[in-house]
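Entry 14. Structure prediction run on the chain below.
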Amino acid sequence: MSRLKLTGISKNFGAIQALSSVTLDVAPGEVLGLMGDNGAGKSTLVKIIAGNFRPSSGQIMIDGAPVVFHKPRDAQTGGVEVVYQDLALCNNLTAASNVFLGREAMRKIGPLRLLDYPAMNRRASELFKVLKSETRARDVVRRMSGGQRQAVAIARTLLSEPKIVLMDEPTAAISVRQVAEVLDLIRRLRDRGISVILISHRMPDVFGVADRIAVLRRGELVASKATATSSPEEVTGLITGAIETA
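Output returned:
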C-alpha cells in the first residue's frame, strides 16, 4: 500500500495552470527526490500536500484513505509535517523550546499553569538521540550550525509521530560537512518508516539519499523512477526538456 498517493492533481491560479494532472505514489519509509526548474510546480505540489492550497482537481490518499485538507493543521492531523527552507526557528530560544514551539508542555502548580521546561528538555533530548544528532536541548539556536538547526526542525516534526515529512531545500547554503549531517538525518527518518519528500536543486544530495526521483516540468510529471536506474545527466535532461519523458 502507498503511504501517499496523488491522483490527477491539478491546480489553477486563474488562467495560470500551475499543475496538470500529477499522479504520484510514495511508499512507507521511502525517500522521494522531487526535482524541477524554478516554476516547474514543486512548491505548489508541496503546498497542496501540506494543506496550504486545495487542488483544483484530483485526489490525495494517505494509507489508502482519501483525505481533504482545508488548512495546514488538517494536514498535520493527517500525519504530514513540513520542514521549510527558512526552518522557522526562533534564534533566541533553546533547541527544546523550538521543538515545542506552539505545542509547549505545561504543568499545574495550584491554580497556575506553567511551562514545563524539564519535560520539554527531556523529550527534546530523546528526539535528538533518535536522530543521532549531537544537538543539545538547552543550547540556544543562534549559536548552532546549519546542520544542528536542521536537526531541531526535524525533531519538531517527530513530536507528532508523522507519516510523511516534506523537506524544502534542506541542504541549501550549508557546508559540505553539514550537508552530510542533514542527509544522515533524512536516512534516520526513513529508517523509522517515515516517508520523506525531498525538494532540492542539489543533484548529488538527491542521488545520495533518495530511493526514487520525480521530475516536474511546467506543471507536469515527466518522470518518476528509481534513483538506481537514472543518472544526473538524465535528470538534467528531463528538467530542461532535452529529454521529454522517462
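Residues 176-191 form the longest helix (16 residues).
Filed with the rest of this week's runs.
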